[in-house]
Amino acid sequence: MWNEDCALEDYILRHIEPEPDYLYRLWRATNIHMLHGRMASGHLQGRLLKMLVQMIRPHTILEVGTFSGYSALCMAEGLEDDGHLYTFEINDEQEDFTRPWIENSPVSDKITFIIGDAITEAPKLGIEFDMAFIDGDKRTYQETYEMTLSILRPGGFILADNTLWDGHVVDPTYQKDQQTQGIVTFNDYIQRDPRVEQVILPLRDGLTLIRKR
Q1: Which SS3 state, helix, strand or coil, does residue 77 take?
Q2: Which of 1, 7, 67, 95 has the fewest CB atoms lying closer than 10 Å?
Q3: Radius of gyration (Cα) for the chain, nearest Å?
Q4: Does residue 147 register a pLDDT over 80?
Q5: Residue 131, φ and ψ in degrees, nearest 5
Q6: If pLDDT is split at 50, 70 and 90, which confidence band does 34 have?
Q7: 3-state DSSP assignment of residue 110
Q8: Is 167 helix (H, G, I), strand (E, B) or coil?
Q9: Burial class for 86, CB neighbours closer than 10 Å (0-12, 13-18, 19+)
Q10: Alpha helices in the chain (DSSP H)
Q11: Percentage of the chain with pLDDT > 70?
Q12: Segment holding 84, helix H or strand E
């Protein structure tokens, strides 16, 4: 049976920059060897992340939630020669999978992979960031956002992933789910925050672009 959504997705993927072979192999390995493999950004979002980095031209990027490293590699692709990305993963059980993929990648010299809680550890770097990508624990998105905003330069950008959460943000049957509630609280919080301006893109699971005033 013909499926319009699948047909459109296939059409889009055929008409954007091709997914590099290394990233395709990482995406395949992620889905084969890791639980919740769909959490990896994938072709479309990955190419968008790269292009946003090329547009914003940050010198320093903070990523909260490395997972398998796919999004970090995409953003690092877009960095200029002197740019650097610091990515934090709180789940140390993922290190054995993720670190080799990062360290063997063509952009390994632009990435510092850190196992630890970004909320407490990222400020210790003493870096003022130009851009951040938040994709960690949904239950602590608001805390992660406040930490990130505190070390982001004025005019810097935060990208927050999964902000539509498979549509659960408007589904009453999910309102008691802690992760859904974390996203709902975060979305409401930044909508009222006079320190920033923001827009939600309905891409995959929702991607919010936030600019610090």
Answers
A1: helix
A2: 1
A3: 17
A4: yes
A5: -155, 150
A6: confident
A7: helix
A8: helix
A9: buried
A10: 4-14, 21-33, 42-56, 70-78, 95-103, 118-121, 141-150, 178-191
A11: 99
A12: strand 84-89
pLDDT in tens, 149-182: 999 999 999 999 999 998 999 999 988 899 999 9
pLDDT digits (tens, 9 = 90+) for 82-103: 999 999 999 999 999 999 999 9
pTM given for the model: 0.95
One-letter amino acid at 55 equals M
CA dihedral 78, 149, 164, 27 (to 10 degrees): 30
**pLDDT tens digit string along 102-120?**
999 999 999 999 999 999 9
Q: How far is CA 17 from the centre of its chain?
A: 19
Inter-axis angle of helices 21-33 and 95-103, nearest 10: 170
CA 9 to chain centre: 20
Q: What is the pLDDT of residue 182?
A: 96
Structure tokens at 68: 């398998």
Helix, strand, or coil here: 149?
helix
Identify the pLDDT of residue 6: 87
Using CA atoms, how far apart are residues 153 and 115, in angstroms rounded to an integer?
24
Distances (CA, A) of 4 to 9, 15, 41, 156: 9, 17, 22, 37
Q: Which helix or strand (DSSP H or E) is residue 159 part of? A: strand 152-161
